Amino acid sequence: MIESLSLLGAGGHPARGTDFTALDIRTTGLRPGHVVELAAVRVRPDGTVAGELSTLVDPGPGVPPGPVALHGITRADLDGAPAFGAALGSLLNLCRGSVVVAHDLPFVASFLDSEAARIGARVPVLPGVDTLAAARTAVGLPNHRLATVAPAFGIAARPGRTALSGARTVAQLAVSLFGRHGFTFASPPVLPALPQFAAGPLRPRADVPAGEPGWMAEAVERVAIGADGDAYLDLLAGVVADRHLAPDEVAALAGLAAEAGWPAERVRSTHERFVVALREMAERDGVVTAAEARELRQVATALGVADAGDLRPTADGRPARVLVLGTTAAADRLRARVLAEGVQLAKKLTASVTHLVADPSVPANEPRLARAAELGADVLDVHSAPVALGFEPPPAPPAPAPAPVPARARLPKVVGGRVLMGAGLLLMFFTVVGMFAGTPLVAGIFFAFFAVGALLGGWWLAEPAPR
Fold it and tell me: Residue 261: is it exposed, middle or buried by C-beta count within 10 angstroms (0-12/13-18/19+)?
């Protein structure tokens, strides 16, 4: 149903004039099964939203909705919702004449293909872009979950539980990738001619904005949680980020891992590595509060990890919280660098922000610049920030130029050099005359050698001093 397009940097076919339709889904599991929620957001290249679609999807009478504790969709929510076939027409109408984008496109495409095959729908192949793979190319991050990539790209809205919130974030991410990051298509996308389909009734789910991220959510953004695109780790990180890991959530995760064929040992080792990484993030901040220690131990206990260990701050003098302002690719790369270095990336200016970095797109009269200085934060520009934040060593100072030699001090050398050159020329003259008069060859070569030496030595002594 969706064919992934190859992308290039500069030099490919530009996306100028191309609309994007961002997709996100909620499913019954990690393997292709049933879609229980579908959302799509169409945006123009300048980021203007041209249309949205959101609906719950009934997988069939009596079919379980999957991990309710994770996506929040109950069987009662699905009763009376349209089937996939009834929602497909509305989806294709929104996608017509656009390039489809999704974060972890292979995962989304596999479920849509499974649903289309189940109802026997023959859908033309739609061109698509995987924003996860593109973001991985654009910036280096500890992980490329959508909730991590969004703040790195300066996207204010965090993806929440609903598919619509995720699709909105993916749409903004696509605009940034093809806009300020300059991605292009390796070959022009082929947009299939789609007819106008009958649009059936939809049942959207109420979109609840994500709450303010706590310490745990910010720590998850800085944790290298494994292979990008691993749906289990993405779910695990998402559940942990809300600070409340309930037993039903842990049971839901275990069920999904078993369904995906993960042996118990693999699940256990994954949980242990995840908790250890969280502990390292807590200690690296330099200050471990009682709440952080309590939350970490609660997560460790819920995941079956025996002990989170004694938390010991290991501050190394690096910044505690960095706020990066700006809408350039350089600002995105710095935000990603902050996360990759294990430093907290602030979402807004508070008293806990230690450094504020602004790129050239931030006006000089931006109120947060003055306010940051009032709060005692260091205000930096985006180019000097990596060195000022301690991420890179300062550039080596240029080697000092040799001190000029005073002309009066050089006068004896110049005179001596010229005298020596004159002696060399005179000796060379007599050598040549002598050889024409019959002087033996060996003697001529001997005197010529001394003449050349005198010329070179005199030239070296009389060479002008460097300026």
Answer: exposed
The span from the CA of 61 to the CA of 57, in Å, is 11
Question: Phi/psi zone of residue 121: left (φ > 0), alpha (ψ -120 to 50 degrees), beta?
Answer: beta
What's the CA gap between 68 and 60, in Å, rounded? Answer: 16
DSSP 42-98: EE-TTS-EEEEEEEE---STT---S-HHHH---HHHHTTSPPHHHHHHHHHHHHTTE
Closest CA to 225 of 272, 186, 288: 272
Q: Which helix (H) or strand (E) holds 409?
A: helix 407-436
The 3-state DSSP class for residue 461 equals helix
User: Taking a C-beta distance cutoff of 8 angstroms, is the pair 417, 458 a contact?
Assistant: yes
CB 335 within 8 A of CB 154: yes
Spatial contact of 83 and 57, defined as CB atoms under 8 Å apart? yes
pLDDT along the chain (467 residues), means of 10: 91 93 94 93 96 96 90 94 95 96 95 94 93 95 91 87 95 96 95 88 85 77 68 80 79 85 85 85 72 82 75 56 95 94 89 93 95 94 93 83 60 66 72 72 69 69 57
How many CB atoms lie under 10 A from the CB of residue 56?
24
Give residue 275's identity as a one-letter amino acid code: V
Rounded Cα gap, residues 376 and 374, in angstroms? 5
Q: Which H or E run includes 3?
A: strand 2-4
DSSP state for residue 279 in the 8-state scheme: H
Report which DSSP code applies to 134: H
Closest to 420 (Cα-Cα) out of 461, 464, 378: 461
Alpha carbons 24 and 165: distance in angstroms, whole number? 9
Laid out side by side, the sheet with 19-27 consists of 2-4, 126-130, 98-102, 19-27, 35-43, 49-56
CB atoms within 10 A of CB 301: 15
Paired residues of 321 in beta bridges: 344
Amino acid, res. 189: P
The Cα–Cα gap between 41 and 21 comes to 5
> What are phi and psi for residue 177, nearest 5 degrees?
-65, -45
Distance, in Å, from the CA atom of 173 to the CA atom of 167, rounded to the nearest integer, reads 10
CA-CA distance, 232 to 253, in Å (whole number)?
A: 8
Residue 467: what pLDDT? 45
Kindly report the pTM of this predicted structure: 0.81
Question: What is the C-alpha to C-alpha distance for residues 199 and 39, in angstroms, rounded to an integer?
Answer: 15
Residue 281's SS3 state is helix
Nearest 5°: the CA angle 60, 62, 68 is 95
How many residues does the structure list for the chain? Answer: 467
